[in-house]
Design brief:
The structure is a single chain. The protein has 319 residues and is mainly alpha-helical. It is built from 14 helices and three strands. The protein has helices at residues 3-10, 15-30, 35-59, 73-86, 89-109, 136-144, 151-166, 170-174, 204-217, 240-254, 261-274, 279-286, 292-296, 302-313; strands at residues 181-182, 187-191, 197-201. Strand 2 and strand 3 form a beta hairpin. Helix 3 crosses helix 4. It is globular and about 65 Å long. The protein starts with a helix and ends in a 6-residue tail after the last helix.
Length: 319
């Protein structure tokens, strides 16, 4: 986590909150937690602090909490209910899990509290949303917006083909460095969640798109930067959030709604299962450790796969 992020998250917080969040960040860094995880954890705690400073009078919760050690169960429940109402139940669940880690650290590592205010706070119930897969024709329409030899066109095609061809997460592709791409073996080295690295092969079309991008990248002002993806102008990287906005923009130009990297991840899982691929191999390729993930990804197209299997098996047609 850069000092800029930390300062931005803690800059307007009460002193006690700011000090403890800085200490927690140091502890997370020493534990080698991924940058995205550290940011999300700190964001949740800073949001709770701001909420308690701004909304306590409105909700009638008892007692103020200018210090994290003074947070009570009622404070957390009010914050969680507010998150459900203003964001979503899934967002509230993410905040719940992050705050569990924060108060566990306060209790076990720092011994600032005897009991976590999260102990009896129930997790918000969430409705699992089925993420629709992207059909080949939609991906082709999105790629058609990248036709041309301009820097951004070649870069964006290479990015989109990597998502489509390997099913990687947004940040996995977004945080690639030049050293992570091996054009000799047509493979990419992904740095996954929880420091779980893996290498994946990519196909000829993706390899061609990457090669074309690398050639034009060599002439860019930022060619000496270690990051693979560069912004159109200036000497700076194209960060994962910039890729997220690019995908949305390309989707709008192609007339395809709700375009984001995770849809290709679901599509990859769907096509793998459709072809009869092994679930264990799929877990290795996509960097999963939970058996629940293969069932969740591509779930929106599960009925389609079941129908195709039914027709192929011909049950009842042999009598």
């Amino acid at each position: 986590m850069t000092a800029g992020y930390l300062a931005r998250l803690t800059g307007d917080l009460p002193k006690a909150w700011a000090i403890l969040l800085r200490d927690w960040d140091r502890s997370l860094r020493s534990g080698n937690y991924p940058e995205t995880t550290r940011y999300n954890y700190l964001l949740a705690a800073s949001q709770l602090a701001r909420y308690l400073g701004e909304h306590l009078a409105e909700i009638g919760a008892r007692g103020e909490a200018p210090d994290p050690t003074e947070v009570t169960r009622s404070h957390v429940e009010a914050f969680q209910a507010w998150m459900v109402q203003t964001r979503s139940s899934s967002t509230a669940l993410n905040k719940h899990k992050a705050l569990q880690q924060f108060f566990k650290w306060l209790r076990d590592d720092e011994e600032e509290i005897d009991r976590s205010p999260m102990d009896r706070v129930k997790q918000p119930k969430t409705v699992q949303k089925l993420v629709p897969v992207i059909q080949d024709e939609d991906t082709a329409r999105i790629l058609s917006t990248c036709k041309g030899k301009e820097f951004a066109q070649l870069r964006d095609e290479a990015i989109i083909r990597l998502y489509c061809n390997t099913g990687a997460r947004l940040a996995e592709v977004g945080n690639l460095t030049l050293d992570d791409i091996d054009m000799n073996t047509d493979s990419v080295h992904y740095h996954g969640k929880g420091s779980k690295d893996r290498r994946m092969r990519f196909g000829p079309r993706t390899g061609r798109a990457l090669s074309r991008y690398l050639r034009v990248r060599d002439k860019h002002k930022g060619a000496e930067l270690p990051e693979l993806w560069l912004a159109d102008r200036g000497v700076r990287r194209l960060a994962p959030n910039g890729i997220k906005l690019m995908l949305k923009r390309r989707g709008c130009a192609a007339g395809v709604a709700h375009v984001h990297a995770h849809r290709w991840r679901h599509t990859f899982a769907h096509e793998w299962k459709r072809a009869g691929g092994d679930s264990g191999d799929l877990m290795l390729l996509l960097g999963w450790t939970s058996d629940d993930m293969p069932r969740h990804y591509g779930a929106s197209a599960a009925a389609e796969r079941a129908q195709e299997t039914h027709v192929r098996m011909g049950i009842g047609e042999n009598v």
